[in-house]
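Pilot study result, target chain (456 residues):
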Amino acid sequence: MASDAQTSLELAGSLAQSEHVPIADGAWRATAVLTLLYWFGTLDRQIAALLVPLIKADMKLTDLQISLIQGLAFGLFFMLLSPVMGWLVDRYSRRMILFGGIIGWSIAAVCSGLTRSFGGLFAARAGVGGCEASINPTAYAMLSELYPPNKLSLPLSLFVMGGNLGSGMSFLLGGAVIAWVTASPPIDLPLFGTLSGWQLAFVITGLPGLLLAPLVFTIPESQQHLARKATRQSTTGFGDLFRHYRRFPLFYAAHGLGFALIMAFVVGLQSWNATFLSRHHGWELSTIGYWIGIAQVGSALIGLAVHGWAVDRLFATGRRDAHLTYFAVMCALALPCGVAAYLVESGALMLVLYSVAYFCLMAFASIGPAALQIATPAQLRGKASAVYMVGVSIVGTILGPIIVATFTDKLFGDEAALGESMALFAGLTTGLAALLFTIGRPAMRRAIAAAMPPSA
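Predicted structure:
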């Protein structure tokens, strides 16, 4: 009791001190640039979900093969390269790392539209995943050193809004491209021949990154990162990170697995929403693209800043477990809507219910990293972000779409049961995540108290 009272007093002093820590010069410019880059990165990442029926018909693929392209191809290489990116982020120029990643994922996205085989498409999506492993550890580390802890959730939420806008725009753009291609003659490119609609959509969404990549050089390198490089303080390894994890194992386990389950909810359902609406409600792909895009863009514009602001305010009151507490509540609210969305008879009502669930959970990609950055020493944040991204990649990006397909093919044994598979998946992911966040709250309080700087 005495120890807990002492750490509470220390945290109160630390929070009072952090209220007066200024935001670094160029921080909001950095937030805007990173948000824009994440927008276009997610644009070419998520458009594959809308194009599933066209790709499947054109290449004559099964649901399981489609899930491998959407989940394993992207997620495996995202996972494998995340630790490498985290190691680089703590040692070298973050701007150069991000610049190389943007060029790489843009070229791979364009190549996704030029291939004509399952193997070629798998390799191209793997290239997108491997290169996009650069953006999250880089952005999290940059922003965490440009803003004080009590003001970090809002800029991270704005950054993540770029990803949500990109996801929504991928459906809007994909729907527009499909409608345009349907009404237009085939497009022939020298050397590559005739491109079908889904191929053209990949090419169009990949090209902007090549033009936007130089914007990374308008982002300031933080003074803390430059000082660590100059004094060789950034030469920590993953062994140092895992020793830190052993001090607070319950927090890092509950935090990592909980947010990975939310990632699985988002990626797993997004990967199959277009197919579900087409297969079970008879919607045209262009219509699906417009309405899913509008729903996701609207939710992102309204919700992300609100979620980030709410968590920052809750944390500023002295709640050391603010991030996990908030998301436990959001999971409880999302669960019934996520389950019901795939069991109702109306496609329009399905979109409404899904949008409510998505609104509750959309900020996971900012609230989760914000908690991680605050609880982790500065010289370990890049590596901690990389390990975190490995976890969400395995459980979310790789397994999410595959589990839904496996429920459909193996558990129910009927493609007509896709709705039941998605409902079951939505309930399991949100329920388990809510339980993990609740269990991890005391450990988060201890980790935050230990990580906060001593009061002046």
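One observation from the pilot: The domain at 23-451 is CATH 1.20.1250.20 (Growth Hormone; Chain: A;). A full batch analysis is planned for the follow-on phase.
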